[in-house]
Amino acid sequence: MDSFEGIVEFVAVAESQGFSAAAKQLGVSTSHVSRQISRLEERLGSALFARTTRLVSLTETGQAYYHQCKELVNGLQQANEQVSSQQLQLSGTLRVSAAGAFSEQFVAPTLMEFAKLHPELTIDMDFNSRMVNFVEDGIDFSIRYGQLQDSGLVARKLLDRPMMAVASPEYLTKYGTPNHPKQLKQHSCLIANNDHWRFSEGSEELTIKVQGRWRSNNVHALVQACEEHLGIAYLPKSSFSNGIEQHKLVPILHEFWSSGVSSWIVYQNKRFLPLRARLAIDYLLERFKDFQE
User: I need a labelling partner for 235 at 20 to 30 A (CA). Which of 50, 154, 160, 164 fits?
Assistant: First the structure.
């Protein structure tokens, strides 16, 4: 059985490309990981990693060994989780990074429900739009909105979010109501993260570059600016529900609204997700599968 010692640490170092990063993933010290790797290499009689001051990379032997070992680690993790899931008393801290009003209004309450089901579980939710480093920041998964860059991360679609264009009645009375997205170039538009707005015209996508007097990465501030007659806003429908109900906002350009952009659950590597993160992700996906804005 001694021959299995160090394999979990070996796979973690191979996939994170660093001893410190692997230690953080496994919740152990860097010295422990280093010792385990050294003992494993000693038993095998072969170097598995080429080490420099800045980089740890697999040797040719290490690469071949990794392809065999990763399946063993996957099988062991699944077996452990199967036993754990039968008892299903989640504990520890689930760390989630989220951004935007949708996460505040809908995702956070859903994770609160999940927390109620598991009294021993702690949830740490950080509302921040910056790109996170999952290893260094200790984040289990993040909720992100819009088009994702190909970063090598795992991304699972939470839901599609249809768009809506609105303005205040006072703004429309003063500046007129546009009847085509191209006319937005003559209007003051309230800009979030992107000044290129995508609309649908029949089966074609229409992209309009807009400009305006107010720009913010905070949805609440954008909606308030719209209610204060500063311009036209174009955001997911749920952003405007209160304003429309209170007759502060009026939908415009109905026939050109885009079917929307997506909200995603993003994480680093499924093999290293703890059970609490996997079950939380499954819970979110199940709860939002029939969600309608």
Answer: 154
Q: Which residues are paired to 125 by β-bridges? A: 96
Structure confidence by residue, pLDDT tens digits, 105-161: 899 999 999 999 999 899 999 887 666 667 667 789 999 877 666 567 888 999 888
Instruction: Please list, in sequence order, all residues whose beta carbon lies within 8 angstroms of the beta carbon of residue 252, skipping any fewer than 6 positions away.
Output: 165, 166, 167, 172, 177, 178, 232
87 C-beta neighbours (distance < 10 Å), count: 7
Q: Quick one: 60 exposed, middle or buried, by C-beta within 10 A (0-12, 13-18, 19+)?
A: exposed
First and final C-alpha spacing in the chain: 55
Out of 3.40.190.10, 3.40.50.300, 1.10.630.10, 3.40.710.10, the CATH code matching 92-157+262-288 is 3.40.190.10
Residues in a beta bridge with 236:
163
